[in-house]
Design goal:
The structure is a single chain. This protein has 470 residues and is of the alpha/beta class. The chain has three domains: 1-31, no CATH class; 33-101 and 275-462, 3-Layer(aba) Sandwich (Aminopeptidase); 111-263, Glucose Oxidase, domain 1, CATH 3.50.30. The chain is built from 16 helices and 14 strands. Strands 1, 2, 3, 4, 5, 6, 7, 8, 9, 10, 11, 12, 13 and 14 form a 14-stranded mixed sheet that branches. The longest helix is centred in the N-terminal third of the chain and has 30 residues, at 44-73. The protein binds 2-acetamido-2-deoxy-beta-D-glucopyranose (NAG) (4 copies) and zinc ion (ZN). One 2-acetamido-2-deoxy-beta-D-glucopyranose binds at residues 224-225. InterPro entries: CPQ, Peptidase_M28. Residues 1-19 form the signal peptide. GO terms for molecular function: carboxypeptidase activity; metal ion binding; metallodipeptidase activity. This is Carboxypeptidase Q. Belongs to the peptidase M28 family.
Length: 470
């Protein structure tokens, strides 16, 4: 795609980059009122107290409850009864911890169910091809699809092909992994692009840098007016194999069968409040999503982030630390099919956005915590940076411009916010695959994330000043 096209399609990204350059330049020159600096440093004993209590005491119980939650419910796909049961469990757990201010907000969510999938290479030799359909994929016609495959490395390569080369075939995308954010477009839009060229199905190299023969699922979207064709992930191993066979001049014939059902169900966002002592109407939101994909157990995505966020109001209440503003944990529902829970919350509360002082999210792992990816005005970022000083070495501050997943919707509405930075370089190895289980987690790290998450949000919720917007 040309730079000009990018500019037209994604003008916001251009603005974002410009803004981040400016903000970065001024970050070194944060000049805060000395009284505010003194006030922030006066929290050092409290933050140490919160973190020590979680590290040495309450964190272990939280981790046991987290493990029990994952063991008991496992995968919690949008629209499933097991997701609803897991929400009930968290409501009960909140009350058991002595916090009764827990409410839910109902909404409609997609309920896409994987029934049956099967993939086989017939030519040049018989080999099983493990496939894992993408959320919202249509089924194959009864009896499946038997077709020749054509492998491409990019959308550009697909576009350059003559339509007759693609018509009636299964398009295999073997795109190189650059980063999740850049490469995921082959999962989300691959089917639509290939359908416009006349393809009958697509198989997409899993969006991960590493594989031991596991496919990775995720959401995909059909563009308007496009023939909906079945679309599934394949492993890196098979994507490379199919590429080599094509390069070696072999004709590749595949057979796939996929069957899904789709309807909608009711689900709920869960709100856990520790009401503010002075300004209960003002909110500091900490959040993660409670739903997961139907493969693996959603331990990492996003069981860990959901749990440490739920724990913030709960543990502050236990420690008898009531900040000035309300601390609200939100357990988003139906993040995976496309931020459905967060969209509903935004719609329902759009006239109260000015009451959100800060919004936080953990949805990229709860490995060793490093700091925050912060979006907000220069002054807000300066205040956050000053608060982070007392958490060294958990004091890294980044400025991607769009931190988080669900909370990006709020960031776009000018609400300041942050997502948890952690040592998650292996996150996408397991993400949306059967590999997302408790084995990936480390208690010490999760507890450390929880300690930082609770202590940091306490300070923001208790400061005498609101975080200023642009
Ligand atoms: C921290 O110190 C402040 C005064 O500097 C005091 O008011 C507060 O009670 C202390 N908090 C804890 C948890 O020790
Ligand atoms: C939650 O508590 C209610 C009332 O005590 C109980 O009926 C229900 O079975 C519990 N649900 C879960 C999922 O723990
Ligand atoms: C889709 O097709 C309809 C009717 O064929 C047309 O009116 C509409 O503009 C199309 N929309 C897009 C996004 O192409
Ligand atoms: C968990 O992480 C801690 C701290 O990084 C490390 O010392 C420990 O060895 C890890 N435990 C396991 C089982 O990997
Ligand atoms: Zn997630």
């Amino acid at each position: 795609m040309t730079a000009l096209k990018l500019l037209i399609l994604f003008p916001l990204i251009t603005i974002k980059i410009d803004a981040s350059v400016v903000i970065n330049r001024y970050d070194d020159e944060c000049v805060l009122d000395p009284a505010l600096v003194a006030e922030i440093s006066s929290y050092e004993n409290v933050t140490k107290h919160i973190m020590d209590q979680i590290r040495n005491n309450y964190g272990k119980t939280m981790y046991q409850e987290y493990t029990h939650f994952i063991d008991k419910f496992g995968a919690r796909p949008s629209g499933s009864w097991i997701l609803e049961n897991s929400i009930n469990h968290m409501i009960n757990l909140t009350r058991q911890h002595g916090l009764n201010d827990v409410t839910t907000e109902e909404l409609e969510v997609p309920h896409w169910v994987r029934i049956f999938e099967y993939g086989l290479m017939l030519q040049p030799r018989a080999k099983k091809i493990v496939i894992l359909g993408f959320g919202s994929s249509v089924s194959t016609p009864r009896g499946g699809i038997l077709a020749e495959a054509i492998v491409v490395k990019s959308f550009a390569e697909l576009e350059a092909l003559d339509r007759t080369k693609v018509q009636g075939k299964i398009v295999v995308f073997n795109e190189p992994y650059v980063s999740y954010g850049e490469t995921v477009i082959y999962r989300t839009l691959g089917a639509s692009k290939a359908a416009r060229k006349g393809a009958v199905a697509t198989l997409v190299r899993s969006i991960t840098p590493f594989s031991i023969y596991a496919p990775h699922t995720g959401a995909q979207y059909y563009e308007n007016n496009v023939t909906k064709i079945p679309t599934a992930a394949i492993t890196l191993e098979d994507a490379d194999l199919l590429q080599r066979l094509q390069n070696e001049g072999e004709k590749i014939v595949l057979q796939i069968q996929m069957y899904y059902t789709e309807d909608t169900k009711k689900s709920r966002n869960t709100l856990v409040d520790l009401k503010g002592r002075v300004n209960p109407e003002k909110l500091v939101i900490v959040s993660g999503h409670i739903d997961s994909w139907d493969v693996g157990e959603g331990a990492m995505d996003d069981g860990g982030g959901m749990m440490i966020s739920w724990f913030v109001p709960v543990v502050l209440n236990t420690l008898n630390l009531k900040p000035r503003r309300t601390v609200r944990a939100i357990l988003w529902t139906a993040e995976e099919p496309g931020l459905i829970g967060a969209q509903a919350y935004l719609k329902q509360h759009k006239n109260e956005l000015d009451k959100i002082n800060f919004i936080m999210e953990s949805d990229e792992g709860t490995f060793q915590p490093l700091g925050l990816d912060v979006a907000g005005s220069k002054k807000t970022r300066c205040i956050v940076q000053e608060v982070l000083k007392q958490f060294a070495p958990i004091n890294k501050m980044e400025n991607s411009g769009a931190p988080g997943s669900d909370i990006v919707l709020f960031i776009k509405q000018n609400v300041p916010g942050a997502s948890l930075l952690n040592r998650n370089e292996r996150y996408y190895w397991f993400h949306h695959s059967e590999g997302d289980t408790m084995v990936v987690q480390n208690m010490t790290n999760v507890v450390e994330c929880a300690a930082f998450w609770a202590a940091f949000s306490y300070v923001i919720a208790d400061l005498s000043v609101d975080l200023p917007r642009h």
